[in-house]
Design goal:
The chain is α+β, with helices and mostly antiparallel strands. 41% of the residues lie in helices and 27% in strands.
């Protein structure tokens, strides 16, 4: 039956993960995550390996995951309020001058943000001012430089960093980047 098959698949996956050397999988820094959650007052689901909290402007989750055999940390910020137009900003390694050819709808007049992301909006006239809020461009540029992948929509932000964040400073950086984005979108002033 389905339950037996699920148990078999789970056991097979567990066995495969044991075959992957620890240095390829990444060592799980449970003590660091516990220390950080206690210091910052975050909820810590040890079994799921997820830190979470509610900030002004959104809900944050920092999760230790595997993408295939690669250990990574996925940081998600769900905005408290959906932005007024559909927006997608996806990090890219392509040079900024090629973004128009890749379907970029708008530029937000922030050199780092414009060159690090392909930005699309269902209504560019509404989307541009949302993305020009004070502090947002700097935070998004820093995320793109640090993360392997980053994507922001009208509903939230998600970025993935290679490996498990093993130092308190790295976890603080992830949380503070989310704070900066949430603060900019929840109450930041327009810069353009």
């Amino acid at each position: 039956d389905m339950m037996d098959r699920a148990i078999e698949l789970s056991a097979a996956l567990e066995e495969r993960l044991r075959e992957i050397p620890d240095d390829a999988r990444g060592s799980w820094p449970e003590g660091t995550w516990t220390q950080f959650s206690e210091a910052e007052g975050l909820k810590f689901d040890l079994h799921a390996r997820v830190l979470s909290c509610v900030l002004e402007g959104g809900t944050v989750e920092i999760a230790a995951e595997y993408r295939g055999a690669q250990a990574c940390t996925v940081v998600t910020l769900e905005f408290a309020q959906v932005l007024p137009t559909e927006i997608t900003a996806t990090s890219t390694a392509w040079p900024g001058f090629l973004h128009a050819f890749l379907g970029q709808d708008i530029r937000v007049n922030h050199a780092g943000f414009d060159s690090a992301y392909i930005i699309r909006a269902s209504n560019p006239a509404l989307g541009r001012p949302q993305l020009q809020r004070a502090g947002l461009g700097d935070a998004m540029t820093e995320i793109a430089a640090w993360a392997d992948e980053a994507r922001m929509t009208a509903r939230g932000l998600e970025f993935r960093v290679r490996g498990f964040l093993a130092e308190v400073e790295s976890l603080e950086r992830a949380l503070n980047l989310c704070r900066r984005v949430a603060r900019a979108l929840a109450g930041g002033q327009y810069t353009g």
